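Lab meeting, action items carried over

1. Structure of the two-component assembly. Owner: GW. Status: complete.
Input record:
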Amino acid sequence: MRRLPVRLRRAGLPYLLLLPALLLELLVHLVPMVIGVTMSFKELTHLFLGNWGAAPWKALGNYRISVDVNAPVGAALLHSFWVTCVFSVLAVGLCWLLGTAAAVFLQEDFRGRGLLRAVFLTPYALPVYAAVITWAFMFQRDNGLVNHVLHDQLRLTDGRPFWLLGDNSFYALLVVAVWKTWPFAFLVVMAALQNIPRDLYEAAALDGAGRLRQLRRITLPSLRPVNQVLVLVLFLWTFNDFNTPYVLFGKAAPEAADLLSVHIYQASFATWNFGTGSAMSVLLLLFLLVVTAGYLLATSRGRKRADA
Amino acid sequence: MRILRAATVSATVTALAAMASGCGGGTGPGGGGSNDSPRTLTYWASNQGPDVEADKKVLGPELKKFERQTGIKVKLEVIPWPDLLNRILAATTSGQGPDVLNIGNTWSASLQATGALLPWDKGAFDKIGGRDRFVAPALGATGAAGKDPAAVPLYSLTYALYYNKQMFKDAGISRPPTTWNELVAAGKRVSKDGKWGLGAEGGQLANNIHQAFVLGKQHGADFFDAAGKPSFTSDGAVAAVKQYVDFMAKDKIIAPGNAEYGQNQSLRDFATGRTAMVLWQAAATTFAADGMKPADWGVVPVPVPSGTPGSGRQTNSMLAGINIAVFKNTHNLNGAQKFVKFMTGDAEQKLLNKTYGSIPPVRAAQQDPAFDRQDTRVLRETLTRSAAPLPQVADEAQFETSVGTAIKDLFADAAAGKPVTTGSVKARLAKAEQQMAQ
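Predicted assembly:
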C-alpha cells in the first residue's frame, strides 16, 4: 500500500479534524445563505411559494428595483440605509462610551460595587420583548412615564411630544437601543480591565502620572485589542437589530426611525415579496462584509504599526 | 457572521424545504391529498380565547367527541396570531404541514394563490352539507371571486359601535348615533375636560384598513378595480380615508394620542371612561376584563349615511372572521373533510362561537338564543345584512401594509397639528399605490 508522504499527512490532519465541524457549518450557515442568494434572483412571490423552484428567474431585476434610487422602492431603501447608518454610529459610540466609563469607575473598590455591577447588567439580562414593550408604554404620549416626567413634573416641554411618531421616534429608538446594549460593552471592558497589570499603574503613579494620564497612556492602549472586536460586534448587532424597532413601532416604523431590518421585513415578508426582500438582504450582507473587512484591515494594520 | 434576521428566516424556511424534499419526506405541491394515514389528523387552531391554554381547554373535549364519533385522533396545536401566517407559509414552502388549519379570512385569496389549500368545489361542499348552510357574506371571504373557495367559514365577526351610556347621559345625548353626522355631533358634545368622543387605533394597520374599507364602500369606492388592480386614489377612496382621519384632524373627537395606539389602548380608554365611543369587533370580553359592567355600555350598528344599514353604500362593517381549510398535502383527506363537517356542524358552531364571542356563519346555528343578546344581535344582524368582505385579491397583505401605513402617517400628521387635506391624503395614497406596483 502506498502511503502518503509524511508532510502531506501532517498537513492534512488539522483539515481532517475540522471536517465534521466544517460540514455542519456548511449545513447550518452556508446552505441557507446560498439559498437566500438564489432567491434574490427569482421572482418569488406568494404565487410560487408552494413550488418555489418554479418561480421565474428575474436575473438582476430584484437588485435593479432595490438600487434604483429614483423610484419609490429604491429611494425608501436608501433613506432607510442612511437612517440605519446614523443610528448605528450613534448607538455604538454611546454604548462604548457608557460601557467604558462605567467599567473604569467600577475598577475602584468601594462599598456596593457588586450591587452596582448587577444593576448595570440588568438591561442585558432582561428578555428583549418585555423590556422594549415596557419602553413603548413609557414613551406613550398621554399616559407614558417619559412625558409625565418631562412635561408634567419638570415642565421642560411646551406640549406633550409624541415619542413613537414623527422625528422624535429616532431618539426614542436610540435611547432604547443604547439602554439595551451598553451593558454588553460594560461587561467586556470590565473583563478586559482585569487583565491590565496593576504594576503599570503603580509605576505610572510613581512617575507622577495623574488619573487622566493613566487612563490615556495605560488603560485605553491596553483595551485596544478588546475594543477592536467590541466595536465591530456592537456595530453588527445594532445595524441588524430587528427586535427593538419592531417591538417599539410595529410593522410600520415612522420614517425617522425606519431601520433597514424592519424596512426589509416590511418590503418582503409583510407583503409576501420574498425575492425583493432577499435581494435587499444580500445587498445589506455585502455592505456589512465590506465594512467588516475594511474595519479589520484598517485596525489590524494600525496595530502592527503600533507594535513595531 | 449573522446576516439580517429577515434573510435568515427566509433562508431557513427554504432550507427546510430543501431538506424536507431531500429526505424524500415531502409530497410535491400539486400532488393533492391522500388517505395514507386515515386514523390521525393534525389541526392548527388559531388563538381565539384569552390565551393558548384556554383554547386547548375549549377544543380538547370537542376533539375527543370527534374521536368517539369517527375513531380519528386529532392532534391539536394552537398557534398564536403573530406566528400563524409564518407557520402556514413555512408549511406551504415545505409541503409539510397540518391536515386541517385555521386561517384569518382576509388571507383567503392570498393563500388560495399559493395553491397550498384544497379548493372547496361543489363535491367537497356537498360532503359538509352544501354551500347554502352558510350566510353569503361569510362565503364571500373565502377566496377570489369566480374560483372555488379555499376555505370554509368557521367563526364570524363584525364591527359595532360601542358607547358609554353614562357619558352619553351626562352630555345630554338621548339616543346613540345612526349616521356619521350624528356621531360627530355626539362626539363634539362629549369631547371636553380630558374626555373624548371616539377612540381609534392609529398605529394598527389592519384596523385602519377595516375602517377605511367600510367608509370607502359608503363613498361608492373600492380599493381594487374589477381586474384586481389597486385604485387607491379615486375620489371616493380619498374621501373615505380623509373622513376617517378627519375625526381627529377636523372634527377633533378623537384624542391626538390615539395616533400612536397599536396595542388596543383605545379599548382601555373606553373602559376607563376617557372616550365615549369605539368602533370594534366583539369587544365585550375586553371591557369586562377592564372592570366595566355589561349594563354600562350599549351596542348599536356602525353608522351609515342613511341611518339604516344595508348593502352597497349602506355597508357598515368589514366581515372579519376565521376560516377553516384543508391543507392540500394532507395524508388523510377523508378524515379532514369529516373534521371540517364536524366543526361546521350546528352543535359545534353554537358551542364554539358562544364560547369565543363570535357569530356562527352557519344559518341554522344562528338561531340559538345566545346570539340574540343585546351585543350579539347587533353583530349577527350586521353579519347577515350589511357586512362585506375585504377585497379578495392575492395582494391583500400588501394592501393592508401600504394603505394601513398611509393612514397611520396621516394620523401622525393630524396629531402633530399638520393640516390633513384632500391633497395630502391623495399624495399618501398615491405613494401606497406605487408600493403595490413594485
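2. GW to write a short summary for the group page. Key points so far: The longest helix of chain A spans residues 6-40. Chain A has twelve helices and no strands.
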